[in-house]
Amino acid sequence: MSREPREVVLTVNGRRYSARAEPRTTLADFLRDSLGLTGTHLGCEHGVCGACTVLMDGRSVRACLLFAVQAEGHELTTVEGLAPEDGQLSSLQQAFHEKHALQCGFCTPGFLLSAAELLDLKPHPTEDEVRAWLSGNLCRCTGYQNIVDAVLLASSRREEGAR
Amino acid sequence: MSTRMFGEPVPRTEDTRFLTGRGRYTADFEPGAAHAAFARSDLPHARILSIDTEGAKAVDGVLGVFTYQDLEGQLAERLPVLVPSDALIAPHTQYALAKDEVCYAGEVIAMVVARDRPTAEDALERIRVEYEPLTAAVSLAGAAKGEPLAHLDMADNVAGAITEEAGDVAAVFATAPHVFEWELRMERSASMPLEGRAVVARYDELEDRLLLHDATQAPTGVRFGLAMLFGMEIERVHVVAPDVGGGFGVKVIQFYPEEVMVPWAARRLRTPVKWVEDRREHFIGSNQERGQIHHVRVAAGVDGRILALEDRFEHDTGAYCSYGLILPIITAAQLPGPYKLANYRYEMRSIFTNTVPTSPYRGAGRPHAAFVMERVIEHLAGELGLDSLEVRRRNFVQPDEFPYHVGVTFQDGGPTVYDSGDYPRGLARLLDQLDLEATRAEIERGRADGRLLGLGFGAYVEGTGIGPYEGASVSIGPDGLVSVGTAHGTQGQAHETVFAQIVADELGVPMDRVRVTTGDTRRLGFGVGTYASRTAVVGGNAVLRAASEVKRQAAAVAARVMEVAPEDLVFEDGAVHVAGAPDRSIPLGRLAMASNPTRYAFGVDAEEGARLSQLAYAGGDRPLPEGSKPGLAAVEYYSPSAGVFGFGFHAAVVDVDPDTGFVRVLRYVVHHDCGRIINPMVVEGQIHGGVAQGIGGALYERIAYSPDGQILNASFMDFLMVTGAEMPRIELVHTETPSPSNPLGIKGVGEAGTIPVSAAIANALSDALGVPVDRMPMMPEDVLELLRTAPG
């Protein structure tokens, strides 16, 4: 297989990017090294820990298990794109802050994106549903309780029926 | 009036950057750097006959391939022992790159540096190592008997041994009404922070300066060590631990080979070099902990009082012992927990095996100690037909017995002395929250329905806040911003927030006017490190001292400017005013300018400095009064004479599925006491995380070695870390027994949550299954095995 770099054109956080990537370059490495978006973290590089979770066309994917070339033409959201504006926090980010849902912060981007997807699909989940949904993300610091509470808080602040 | 910050659940100041993807972890620095990758031993024990690197060197994009042959001087010696001890018989540490013999699968043999990581890994595949395989000592029980040998140059596998005795154990055993004997085992686990280790080195040849970004818990040690190993002037070496994605102990070791080789390569190749550990490397190349076997004898009275306890135990130190004997020493010193053991003897042996080396993992020798002691209590209660809670109460150190001397040596080399505590009150608080009678009744009802339910308790005392010292720099800038700098780093414990709380209170400034930078030797050269639940205690008291000194300086300047006595001044809202006259106030920033009698006044505020200078000359005085310095800035250190001892009690209710062996934790109740609390929100977060690691360690996480020395579960697919779906909601209650030993009255909390979890879960499982659970962890297959042996 050719190792020749190819042009990858994609949209990240509403901005169009074009950069070259070897076919074997993962989406995570591409985001971090080629686009400078280092908020996406790598915890295992085999698809278990969820730290590298990003949204592709609104659905969560593991950036360590996709090649950059597979994201060609798609729309991605990373942690850098969650806040409505610079200097502001999204309601989910704000809830994480208030509930002390992060400690070292390394897993946080993945949790935020997984939780954002959950609240998008199901604005008012139960605690058990939150725990089950987030079981694809590992955190070694918080014991999960405050993360779960933060997601429930963000959910409770959503207007009924809001997406 | 300013609100006091100490004791309040102040939201964290560091959160915003983490929430928006702007954290700065080691891997984020030097995006264009060359990458290192390491060839590691495939075998747990072997002689290296030859290493062929020619193929690797020929790969396009490779900048260098290095083996032991490339090392010179001190770097060609074994890496230093971090914590030396006279009892260390065989202080074997590893070489930066393996020399002749490899002693665990994963040991670093060669380094490749290439333009990027994939290229470096391509080259790794072309390195050929020829081995002569040797038999490997894998099991602790076998290695303890000296069969086979883990190191070619040794006659047995004993790295070190210590025996200590308080009282007269033999005499008590000779006359005691009851003597019992049990064996207890804990297996190997690992810290597993979500961020692995990482090192980025930049060497500036023109300036002869080395800057290392390192995901370490101890940047100062790395700095001094590198200066020594490279023969560099200390001021030309700096180490920064930026945002670190969790540590839990595994990142406190200096040196890991990669930590030395990456900066070595940056100097040799004159280019920035980066190494970011992958998860498999972390499993086979980063330190682990926990493996111990205890043989306990207990002499007891008919009332359940422990008259004497003797513990002979083996500690698995892995292939090397860079951390000396600290882990088993901690186990031995903390084994008595909250109980009075007037006659206590231990014989500890630290044993080499051909496995990944060990060093502290959250709890650091204490989870084993609590497990052993709490199982002893339950066994004893069972043998004597007593309620185990009553046995605990009868053996407690009482509130009026502090300071309490345990009678054996603490990890810092001094005596183990508990500074304060109130164990009966702590246990009572736990039982209130649990609602003991209702819980027992509910368990009985469940059992009547055929469910395997159990209730278990665990207790611990944790020595925290040990020396030798920590320092802090505090200064006030011309804009009134207060800068706080420490050399010891942070890995998520909210030090930026809690240090700011301390400073905000002392200087009377709002939280958002305080900036804390941790883990940067450019800010402060001296410090020790973040481990042993010590940073809030030792670092926090250093921060208080530095802030107090800056306050004294500011008061002296204000007194001169305002022509009042320093004692009459009040610090509030970022300014200083005379008591009773808040309208006459001077902002701290202006005082900082006034304190610096510069010749050139930049801006209106600075004119005060120039004016003071002129006034001084006019009066025939010095612009800087004798004994004062320009600026409002101080560096202070705090060095405790002994540790401070937190304590707590845990209760677990478990539900065992008899078909699958899966254990569900239905309730988990925690009582916790870490003295005065700086930030209850942060303390609760530390406990939550600690308990989760404890539950993971008790029920899911075990480093599984094959008999031939390979880790069988070296990935997150096979090493199952606890997730939010398994975790119960933790019920947490506090008491606050202040420490009399430091000005803030605080004790450490970082490891507390983890320590008694295996004990509580083992006791709950014993209760549920009706058979003693004397080894941990208990995975479903272990539970099923026990169920097969259970009576009835």
The tally of strands of chain A reads 5
Under CATH, the topology of the largest domain in chain A is which? Ubiquitin-like (UB roll)
Structure summary, number of beta strands of chain B: 29
Total domain modules of chain B: 3
Structural class of chain B: alpha+beta
Percent of residues in helices of chain A comes to 25-40%
Strand content of chain B: 15-25%
- End-to-end distance of chain A, in Å? 44 Å
Rough shape of chain A? Answer: globular
Major sheet of chain A: order of its strands?
2-1-5-3-4
Q: How many DSSP H or I helices of chain A?
A: 5
The number of helical segments of chain B is: 20
Taking pLDDT < 50 over at least 5 consecutive residues as the criterion, the unreliable ranges of chain B are: none
Q: What name does the CATH topology of the largest domain in chain B carry?
A: Aldehyde Oxidoreductase, domain 4
- Largest sheet geometry of chain A: 5 strands, mixed
How does this structure look, described?
By secondary structure, chain A is an alpha+beta fold. Chain A folds into 2 domains: about 5-80, Roll (Ubiquitin-like (UB roll)); about 90-155, DNA polymerase, domain 1 (Orthogonal Bundle). Chain A is built from 5 helices and 5 strands. A 5-stranded mixed beta sheet of chain A has the order 2-1-5-3-4, sandwiched between helices. In chain A, helix 2 crosses helix 5 (about 145-155). With about 800 residues, chain B is an alpha+beta fold. In chain B, helix 10 (about 365-385) packs parallel to helix 19, helix 14 (about 495-505) runs parallel beside helix 15 and helix 15 (about 535-560) crosses helix 16. In chain B, strand 14, helix 9 (about 325-335) and strand 15 (about 345-350) form a beta-alpha-beta unit. Chain B has 20 helices and 29 strands. Chain B is about 30% helix and about 25% strand. The radius of gyration of chain B is 28 Å and the shape is globular. In chain B, the strands form 7 sheets. Chain B has a 7-stranded mixed beta sheet with strand order 3-5-1-12-9-10-11, with helices on both faces. Chain B has 3 domains: about 30-135 and about 195-245 and about 250-285, Alpha-Beta Complex (Aldehyde Oxidoreductase, domain 3); about 290-465 and about 640-790, Aldehyde oxidase/xanthine dehydrogenase, molybdopterin binding domain (Aldehyde Oxidoreductase, domain 4), CATH 3.30.365.10; about 465-640, Aldehyde Oxidoreductase, domain 4, CATH 3.30.365.
